[in-house]
Amino acid sequence: MTTSTTPSRFGGIAGTYMGLAGALVLMLALFGSLSHYFLTVNTFVTIANDIPALTVMAVGMTFVLIIAGIDLSVGSVMALSSGLCSLAILQWHWGLPAALLLGLATGTACGLATGIVSVKWQLPSFIVSLGMLEVARGGAYLVTDSRTQYIGDMIDWLNSSLIGGISPAFIIAFLIIVIGHVTLTRSVFGRYMIGIGTNEEAMRLAGVDPRPIKIAVYALLGLLSSIAGMFQTARLEAADPNTGIGIELQVIAAVVIGGTSLMGGRGSVISTFFGVLIISVLEAGMAQIGASEPTKRIITGLVIIAAVMLDKYRDTRKQRRH
Q: CB within 8 A of 83, min separation 6: which ones?
């Protein structure tokens, strides 16, 4: 049994990677033919340095969707974490390490609160995270006095150029991808996440309590959202209370485009990274060919709908096979 299913599973994963890579190559070729300036080193370096925040949040969202949950508050948590970090530096005169720790703790606490409320009271994570979205966004406005807080170059080392123009933020995001992939595919925690998303009741009958695992996953996403906030602060050299508005849609889109099921139980961090690249290349390409903002939103929305339809098709085909 093991011998026959393992190659099939490997083939399915390899097929997913090849399909996503093929879609990415086609997009690169399309925009390269429409703009003479697209297929350049400068474009690729710019994309690489633009995606760290989206990437780390997408890793966390992959885990949340795998356990059949969802979190809409990531953009607001990112803004609140960034805002508190700036408050600590500018008003409380904390050193940078302590301020960064405060920001990371804030994001983790927000994710922890979302997880505890939704898991302990068995409430839909969609509704709970929607409430957290408003709470965190309101908190971001309060701590920044609804104004952008400029902290200067204290944290801009995260966005500085290293070898080939790549920033430390991108390197950290890439390491988080590697850690996330290993966690999901090589750890007991990863197997538990997949088991919970596939059949939570079966996990209970097997003697595994899903509740602390689910809460930990939401807390992890909160932590990664705060790391994204630090990346964004480094790029702007400031904390903007409006940062991250609507980014939850991009995060979910990247994860779903990467093949993670909205129904839970299936997902891949590597595929999610392909989804991030597809979203980012799409945005960069449309910007270079001069697409208007409404056109960008329409095309991005159509890509999201297509990804959800593909996800539904995959689930239906899987059910027919079984």
A: 139, 140, 143, 144, 149, 239, 241
